[in-house]
Sequence to fold (361 residues):
Amino acid sequence: MSSPFKFAEFSVDPKLGRIAGPNDQVHLEPKIMDVLVTLYLAQGEVVSREAILQRVWPNQEVSDDVINNAISRIRKALAQVGESNRCVETVPRKGYRLVNLKPNIATLNIVTETADQLLDKAVNSHKQSAPGHSVNDTTANKQNSQTELGSSVPLTVTKVLGTDTANDSVANPVSRFASRGLVGFVLLCLIAAVLIPFLNAKWQHNNLVEQIQSLGELQKASYSSFVIQAKRRNELVKMIELRLSIDRTQQFEKFFSKYFEQMNSEERFVFDQIRGITEGALHSANKEMLQLVNDNPEIGRVFPLVEDLKRHLSFWLSKYDNVFMQREDMCLLYVGVEDEVPYPSDLDKQVTKWLESNASL
Fold:
């Protein structure tokens, strides 16, 4: 799909890779835009991760963090250019779906219909109770109808609106329309007084759920990248030990740095793969995770361990900029107990448990 489309307050042009909103416009990479188009084509239905992979990355082997990163990039782009920061919804264990595709005018229709029904009911009730007249006689004779409305409707409207003065001009269609509008306005105010606090609390809860979902996705992306990197790390250690007839006794960072100059082409290839994971997926996930918890302090109020996470990520990113990127003999980067800023592993379990209890509320 390359044709432009709209949803919520956003205008999307897939061919140009552009999302425009009331605040700004932003460009997405082709694959990220393809994910957004896939969600839009489903028109609010849940799209599984497998379906996204088949459409956007067919016949390619990619890790789960590719989709996690794409969803995170889309949410960030929508929040940057518009006000609807909850358009991409995560459905636990099922996939993702696009919400707020169209403006909702149901409330306005309900108010208008209710106002008309109340006024008509009041008018008919009073007409039926008027002596010497029946509804059939009144509808059969236009002149009698106008006379009757002129004398009876004001009394009924007086009761409905709670006023002390009966205005016989209500028989005029323009005045009757204005009276209906007033009833509708009063009802709208009453509905708003009840709904606004509820909707505000619901919005705050949904926004918190979305932010914690993003945290959970970034945690999974970081852990998935770490697992892949650990396999390459162990492979490289074994290659060096076998070729040089040694046993690793040093920390991984020091071990690889020590034998960096002695690595052959095959070992250097694995070394570069490990370094690429550090520079790419791990750095991206850790940076986005720190920004997320800094920008949303309410997450910290739900999970006190977030303060430990901030210290860990800040130290990791500082070491990345000031040590890792300054040395070509480093392929991985560890920050843990020895630095007194370990990663709070229990936080992953707490986030998962909280989402299972609150995401569907």
User: Anything to note?
Assistant: The chain has a mean pLDDT of 81. DSSP finds twelve helices and six strands in the chain. The CA atoms of residues 157 and 163 lie 8 Å apart.
